[in-house]
């Protein structure tokens, strides 16, 4: 009941049908906080695409200027000299077949998996395990590469993948509620403009339908996308 009362109090403070500037929306999301933990701030971008068609699928990456606010655990699957290079770059775990076996046994204590191309034939067999968790390395997201040093540093610095789901929505974390408002606005604009540039040529009608930001436990606040364009 406590949560319900808090949500009712919060939603009475704003118009759920109105679109606010990104600066106003961020300030509202921060003001609405009623939990004790440091909630994530998330963005949902509703798009006029049909992901069932390959030419309307969106899968891109961007680096958040102010990071994600989360300590990203990175695993690098590789062999030989690349192992030492990955360790020096800051990877949390580095190895090859032993981690493939750990995944098979149910281990999954990582946020990102980077692999060199030579390891993909073995790692590719774990599609049913890693795919649903969003951990399968992919060249499009920069996680299948021979340049493991750059890949690890980018992931640690806040590189994220933006991928449209089957309902045509891109969901992404854009920081923590403890971030300064200006930092959250900057991260949100980076995400939005990356998606804007990724508009598929096959989309003929309205591309951007609705943009909403919210904290983990708070209500969604609609954002005027014009205020997010760079």
Describe this structure in words.
With 230 residues, the protein is of the alpha/beta class. The protein folds into two domains: 16-67 and 160-228, Ribulose 1,5 Bisphosphate Carboxylase/Oxygenase (2-Layer Sandwich); 74-157, Ribosomal protein L1/L10, domain II (Rossmann fold). Helices cover 31% and strands 20% of the residues. It is built from eight helices and nine strands. The strands form three sheets. A four-stranded antiparallel sheet has the order 7-1-8-9, with helices on one face. The chain has a three-stranded parallel sheet with strand order 4-3-5, sandwiched between helices. Strands 2-6 form a two-stranded antiparallel ribbon. Helix 2 (22-31) packs across helix 8 and helix 3 (81-89) runs parallel beside helix 7. The longest helix has 17 residues, at 181-197.
């Amino acid at each position: 009941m406590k949560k319900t009362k808090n949500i009712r109090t919060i939603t009475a403070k704003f118009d759920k049908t109105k679109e606010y500037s990104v600066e106003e929306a961020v300030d509202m999301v921060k003001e609405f906080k009623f939990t004790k933990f440091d909630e994530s701030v998330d963005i949902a971008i509703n798009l006029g695409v049909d992901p069932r068609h390959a030419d309307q699928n969106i899968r891109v990456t961007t680096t958040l200027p102010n990071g994600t606010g989360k300590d990203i655990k990175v695993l690098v699957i590789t062999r030989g000299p690349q192992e030492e290079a990955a360790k020096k770059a800051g990877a949390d775990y580095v190895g090859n077949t032993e981690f493939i076996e750990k995944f098979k046994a149910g281990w999954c204590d990582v946020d990102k998996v980077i692999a060199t191309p030579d390891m993909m034939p073995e790692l590719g067999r774990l599609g049913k395990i890693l795919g649903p968790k969003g951990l399968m390395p992919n060249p499009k997201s920069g996680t299948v590469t021979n340049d493991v040093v750059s890949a690890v540093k980018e992931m640690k610095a806040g590189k994220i993948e933006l991928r449209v789901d089957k309902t045509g929505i891109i969901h992404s974390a854009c920081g923590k509620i403890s971030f300064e408002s200006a930092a959250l606005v900057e991260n949100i604009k980076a995400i939005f403009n990356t998606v804007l540039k990724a508009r598929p040529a096959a989309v003929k009608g309205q591309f951007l339908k609705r943009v909403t930001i919210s904290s983990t436990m708070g209500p969604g606040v609609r954002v005027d996308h014009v205020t997010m364009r760079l």
